[in-house]
């Protein structure tokens, strides 16, 4: 923006110059307040000053803090994107490339390599998605505004300690809007609790050291109560007339008791008649795949506090071990799409005159609105969802449906 000399009278200039400072006075006040806490939070005041001197708030994170999705993603869409052929192939390649490290990690922490690699794949797509937001910016903003300031202050100071300790450079510390970072997408306080230096260079680096990241993931699961040698759980069948009030992750009974109640593994292997605690999960209700989950599923749940994510990690680990897809289909006639198919949706939308930006396999707002528009034009329910049915509609509309057996 150009300010013409004619209008640049001194009062106008003064008021314009004072604008940014005035706008951020509340932030500066807040940083001053945080500074007074630095010492008791284990951060040197000089470090604090150096690292906060040029900080400016990024208020876009506050919108994400209060974001209520208007679009509820069905579990089969999550699973189809998180556990697809691409991620299974990538995971197997990573297991080969990092075999020696994984063997050592497995021996030291008692977590099997397929599970560690599955966490890595779901959390950061094997290091491809770290998140691009500078941690200090996001976390200082969330420390000063919004409804969870006291929580985020803890994370902000934990971030300053990571930098002060020399574990990771400030410039490398980018992550999600909430501050999860690196291969394992740990929050800074989780880093403080469980990150380990596994490559022995004296730094716990979850961004530029894959051995540190893999071992830290294993250490997280070990500390979350992982029981070595036990499975996360199994897909099961419930007997006719099963009392559904017995389901739920917190309703634990012994495997022996579940067997007595008629619960059977879907692969036909008898349930071990032991006192091992397990719970029945019906993530899509009675009509979908059903699982009997054990203690290790709770450890996975601790990673992300979402049963969907825990199930994605658990299932990906089974697939990496050579297991197949769930036996019982999801209760839908319009299944979810892999990331390759989502990219095809985006490419088809673009070809049909709806520019949806980067073809990245992430179906965002623009893609959903384009799909809604096409659905309306074609007399379909405008739910904006990119599923199997819509992919076939788009293929037909774009004239690429040849040889599809239609
Ligand atoms: Ca290290």
TrEMBL record:
Residues 1-23 form the signal peptide. Pfam families: PG_binding_1 (PF01471), SLT_2 (PF13406). The keyword Coiled coil does not apply. InterPro entries: Lysozyme-like_dom_sf, MltB-like, MltB_2, Peptidoglycan-bd-like, PGBD-like_sf, PGBDSf, SLT_2. Keywords: Signal. Residues 26-318 form the Transglycosylase SLT domain. It comes from the Bacteria. Residues 339-394 form the Peptidoglycan binding-like domain. SUPFAM superfamilies: Lysozyme-like (SSF53955), PGBD-like (SSF47090). The keyword Nucleotide-binding does not apply. This is Lytic murein transglycosylase. It comes from Aromatoleum toluolicum.
């Amino acid at each position: 923006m150009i300010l013409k000399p004619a209008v640049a009278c001194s009062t106008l200039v003064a008021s314009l110059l004072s604008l940014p400072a005035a706008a951020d006075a509340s932030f500066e006040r807040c940083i001053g307040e945080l500074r007074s806490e630095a010492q008791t939070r284990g951060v040197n005041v000089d470090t604090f000053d150096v690292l906060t001197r040029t900080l400016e708030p990024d208020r876009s994170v506050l919108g994400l803090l209060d974001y209520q999705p208007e679009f509820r993603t069905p579990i089969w869409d999550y699973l189809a994107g998180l556990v697809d052929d691409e991620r299974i192939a990538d995971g197997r390649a990573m297991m080969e490339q990092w075999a020696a490290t994984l063997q050592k990690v497995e021996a030291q922490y008692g977590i099997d390599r397929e599970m560690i690699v599955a966490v890595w794949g779901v959390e950061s797509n094997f290091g491809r998605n770290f998140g691009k937001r500078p941690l200090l910016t996001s976390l200082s903003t969330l420390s000063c505004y919004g409804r969870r300031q006291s929580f985020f202050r803890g994370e902000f100071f934990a971030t300053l300690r990571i930098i002060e300790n020399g574990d990771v450079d400030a410039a490398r510390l980018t992550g999600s809007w909430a501050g999860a970072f690196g291969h394992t997408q740990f929050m800074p306080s989780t880093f403080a609790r469980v990150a380990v230096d596994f490559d022995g260079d004296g730094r716990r680096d979850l961004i530029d050291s894959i051995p540190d990241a893999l071992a830290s993931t294993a250490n997280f699961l070990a500390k979350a109560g992982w029981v070595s040698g036990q499975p996360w759980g199994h897909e099961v069948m419930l007997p006719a007339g099963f009392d559904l009030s017995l389901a739920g992750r917190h309703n634990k009974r012994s495997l022996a008791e579940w067997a007595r109640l008629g619960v059977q593994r879907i692969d036909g292997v008898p349930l071990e008649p032991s006192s091992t605690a397990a719970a029945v999960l019906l993530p899509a209700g009675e009509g979908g795949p059903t699982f009997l989950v054990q203690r290790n599923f709770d450890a996975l749940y601790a990673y992300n506090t979402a049963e969907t994510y825990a199930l994605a990690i658990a299932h990906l680990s089974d697939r990496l071990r050579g297991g197949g897809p769930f036996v019982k289909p999801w209760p839908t006639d319009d299944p979810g799409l892999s990331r390759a198919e989502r990219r095809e949706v985006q490419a088809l939308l673009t070809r049909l005159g709806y520019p949806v930006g980067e073809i990245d396999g992430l179906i965002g707002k623009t893609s959903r609105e384009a799909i809604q528009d096409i659905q309306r034009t074609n007399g379909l329910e405008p739910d904006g969802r990119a599923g199997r049915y819509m992919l076939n509609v788009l293929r037909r509309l774009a004239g690429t449906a040849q040889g599809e057996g239609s």
